[in-house]
Amino acid sequence: MKMQRTIVVFALGVAVALLAGWVAFPRALYLQKQQPLEFRHKTHAEKSGVADCNECHALRDDGTFAGLPAMEKCAGCHSERIGTSNAEATLVDTYIKPGNETPWLVYAQQPANVWFSHAIHVKRAGLTCTECHSTYGESDQVKLYEVNRISGYSRDIWGHSISRLRRAPHDGMKMSDCEECHRKHQVEVGCLGCHE
Amino acid sequence: MKVTRRDLLVWGAGAAAGIAFTPVPWKILDDVSIWSQNWSWIPQPARGPVEVKQSFCTLCPNGCGLRVRTGAGWPVGIAGMSTHPITRGALCPLAFAAHQLNWHPQRLRAVRHQSSTSSWAAAQAAFSKACSEGKVVVIDGYAGRAASQIFEAFAEKRGSYRVAASPETRALAPYESWSGVPANALGYDLENAQTVVSFGAPMLDGWGAPGRFTRLWAERAAGMADPQLRLIQIDASLTRTATKAWQWISIRPGTEDALVAGAARFLLEEHLVPANGPMPPLTLVDAASQTGLTTDAIRNLARTIVAKPPVVAIAGGNNPAVAALNVALGALGQTGGIVLRSKQKKVYESADAVIPKARAVVIDSTVPWDFVPRTDAEIFRFAAWDGGSNKAEWLLPAPGFLEELTDVPTAPTSAVETYAVAPAVAKPTAEVHSAAQFLASFDAELNSTDKIIHARCEEIFRARAGSLYGRETTPVAQVASAQKLEEQLRSGAVWVGEPLKTASLKSNLLKCNLKEWPADTRPERSEDWAAEWPAPVLPPLALKLYQESSLREPPERKTV
Q1: Cβ-Cβ contacts under 8 Å, B10 against chain A
Q2: B521 lies in a domain?
């Protein structure tokens, strides 16, 4: 009887821990944040005829990646309101007219000691944008930004699967993900390749 | 049912066991390690647009091409410029981390007068007074720059201009004294040499432009039993170059002259070389007893030297005996030997000589820190880093690494003329003035560096010779305008001149007035290659790569 009770209590402890670890912990770890604006990639592609990611997320002449487009790029079309949405009003009144850059929360933001060259991966290796960034460029709503309360980086870096066991190919941007892809493509890069 | 203490312990044990099967411990471990990299007191590079700018290293006269990655306008990483025609992307360990030098604790951030903090106004007043009282000598580290032109113009009116030459240029000084051809106009045609005999020059460890000889050696010698390029290293100890050389000849320290004389005498007596130059007085037996080699070893060395021409002998510093060997070998003015790279005729006075009757001496920041002028005059020394004790009354903070626009003339050992413009990539981290700016503030007639660079670009365009090496190689004759040429040079292109005609080289260089074999040829100044950059002023990454991994031979191992 005593043994049976011990097993039940132990199992209860295990169950609570599993529940906490797999369900409660991921929810508690990440803080959800809203982007400053609602942005629709799909709408931009359809209405403005922007079909290629490179048109807004361009590589500069020196090979560096410009990242998110600067305000001047948006101002090309949105110098005045061209819609009635709240996002349009915020974009024009809060950012474009006063000349402020939109403080986008960057899903793929890496630590300062990491140097990633988009030019090498896109031009030399021939990778497509979706291989790392999924089909976000075709989405019709802004993706939820979840920040890790401890590390301060986006959930996209670790990936959405907390166990990292059954991940989609584009899920996760940790060093092990880089290494895995390099191993797969048999491309060797030393430490200074990314951490110069 | 009553919950007992035992139940709580068992439940806790179960929870602990269960938690090990969740991502909690592993995820927290990972996150905490990342969190610990981002503590508020850990310096972080500024976040901002990442760009890559082309510039040139100014830490030594070789001017290697750099690709400088900047974040929010600050340099955060350095790589070699693969389009550079001489260095071809190679850099020394120091250059790779040089952007950290501007933040070095020993960065000179304020004017110092006799070890006390002073001001620019006080320094200017003191220099103005010195100028009115007597002669001013200006000492330059890298001659031929736009700043050098300002120094020369200033010194012409108020005193004299001297150059503290690099060890590579000092090795060419004997030819200058024998033929009148300036050492600055000479270079080594290593690309066409088949045998290189190095007398203590660290050919694979810091000699000349990093990458030039190492790449030639890698392409034509590394791993080959009978290499296309034979490197014979004469060194007292097994230096890093000696370990990789085709042959290492170990001799007693300081007996290079005797070995050179013995080998040259054998070559001349056996008519293995054209009868150029005088016969060395030292016999083979005497040479053997001084060097610690056998006479047979010296004979074999001599035969090996001439077995695979073209051959050139290279000294670690000013060694007239090695220069005389080159005369005997007929290496002067020959393809694969010592060649004339420019028509420049100006011979600069050496800064090593005693400076008599000067009131003030201005030392540019390009002069190595360990250089101390032989003078009693008041010294105004420009430096970006305070390397420790020195004889200067005034220490004046100069722009640090890539903090000022400068130009890069031909590297000391280059076989062809080159010219590049190194734009400022970093913002100055202190109130700094270059020696050229300082002198120009006393003489309104002096041009600015910017204007001189502009004039030089126009000069290159007008000459219509050579090519520009940038993303593409373009002959200057095909460049549309002087403005386009200047734009390209200011954005990282390198101008490379055309090699001079061999016939004119020969006639110029073979007039060497060498009547007797040079006597006592010990250099006046020891050539301590490891101390060319003062040891305390190294960036942290260079400390690791440059010192801990022994990429450079420690000074204590230089002498055996």
Answers
A1: 6, 9-10, 13
A2: no
Position B525 scores a pLDDT of: 46
Question: A61-75, A112-126, B353-367 — which one is most confidently predicted on average?
Answer: B353-367
> B238 and B201 in one domain?
yes
Separation in Å, CA B3 to CA A3, B36, B127, B529: 15, 41, 90, 79
Is residue B500 within 8 A of residue B343, CB to CB? The reply is yes
Residue type at position A18: L
Percent of chain A clearing pLDDT 70 (strictly above): 98
Among B332, B360, B393, identify where a domain stops.
Answer: B332
Shared domain check, B316 and B177: yes
Q: Name the closest residue on chain A to residue B50, using Cα atoms.
A: A64
Does residue A138 have a pLDDT over 80?
Answer: yes
Mark yes or no for CB contact B23/A63 under 8 Å.
Answer: no
Whether B378 and B328 share a structural domain: no
Report whether pLDDT(A83) > 90: no
Are A21 and B50 in contact (CB < 8 Å)?
no
Please tell me whether residues B189 and B117 are part of one structural domain: no
For residues B430 and B290, membership in a common domain is answered with: no
Angle at which helix B256-269 crosses helix B295-307, to 10 degrees, equals: 70
B192 with B303, same domain: the answer is yes
Question: With contact defined as beta carbons under 8 Å apart, do B453 and B147 qualify?
Answer: no
Residue B284 lies inside a defined structural domain of this protein: yes
Determine how β-strand B467-469 pairs with β-strand B494-496: antiparallel
- Where are the extended beta strands (E) located within chain A? 30-33, 145-148
Residue B246 near residue B232, CB atoms below 8 Å: yes
Which residues on chain A are in Cβ contact (under 8 Å) with B32? 150
C-alpha to C-alpha distance for B10 and A186, rounded to whole angstroms: 50
Domain identity same for B218 and B284: yes
Q: In this structure, what token pair is assigned to residue B346? A: 């100006």
SS3 content of chain A, % helix, strand, coil (to 5): 45, 5, 50
Segments in chain B below pLDDT 70 = 389, 501-512, 520-560
Which is higher by pLDDT, A150 or B368? A150
Range of the domain at B381: 112-131+143-156+352-502
Contacts A5 to B, Cβ<8 Å:
7
> Which positions in chain A touch B72 (Cβ < 8 Å)?
none
Would you state the pLDDT for residue B520?
61
Q: Do the beta carbons of residue B141 and residue B364 sit within 8 Å?
A: yes
Are residues B255 and B190 part of one domain?
Answer: yes
* Cβ separation B17–A196 shorter than 8 A: no
Predicted confidence at residue B193, as pLDDT, reads: 94
Reported ipTM: 0.89
Query: pTM, whole model, 2 decimals?
Result: 0.79
| Number of domain units in chain B | 2
Closest-CA distance, A73 to chain B, in angstroms, reads 15
- Mean pLDDT value of segment A160-169: 80
Instruction: Determine the residue of chain A that is closest to B96 in CA distance.
Output: A196
- How far, in Å, CA of B172 to CA of B320, rounded? 9
